[in-house]
Amino acid sequence: MKSKTILTALVLIAGALAAQGAAAKTCAVEINSSDAMRYDKSEIDVAASCTEVKLTLHHTGKLAANIMGHNWVLAKTTDIAGITSDGIKAGAANDYVAPGDARVIAHTKLIGGGQSTTIQFPTKLLSRNGDYSFFCSFPGHSGMMHGKLIFH
Ligand code: CO
């Protein structure tokens, strides 16, 4: 009787652990950007246990979006040049991201000083240890504003 109760308890615990392992886990990431055309992070680490990333971009400066606008675009590192050049053609009305650009894994809108923006995206879009970068697609910014996103 007693051992059966213990066994039942163990089965319940194992079931709860299995459910927890399969459950969604949202990992929050914060990054700041400034009037100095900089992000405050050059690398973002995302653990493989995260099923979703909730990313918040802050613009801690004072300049408006049409002068010192920043967004946060995630893509394979090899796609930065193509995405930014098509983004410039798409213009400010599209936050300098070409609509429907399949190379873009995730992106925020373009913000100006004093603003913040949050997006959420699933990590199933990422391969472990793939070469990913985040960058600002405002014309001329990606050279200064870029970093690596490590999913591991
Ligand atoms: Co920018």
Overview of the molecule:
With about 150 residues, the protein is an alpha/beta fold. About 25% of the residues lie in helices and about 30% in strands. The protein contains 3 helices and 8 strands, in the order H-E-E-E-H-E-H-E-E-E-E. The strands form 2 sheets. The protein has a 5-stranded mixed sheet, with no helix packed on it. A 3-stranded mixed sheet has the order 1-3-6, with no helix packed on it. The N and C termini lie far apart (about 45 Å). About 25% of the residues are buried. The mean pLDDT is about 90. Cobalt (II) ion (CO) binds next to loops.
Q: What bound compounds does this protein have?
A: cobalt (II) ion
Q: What would you call the structural class?
A: alpha/beta
- Could you give a short account of the major beta sheet? 5 strands, mixed
State the end-to-end distance: 45 Å
What is the gyration radius calculated from CA atoms? 20 Å
Tell me, what's the shape?
globular
The DSSP helix count reads 3
If strands are numbered along the chain, what order do they take across the biggest sheet?
2-8-7-4-5
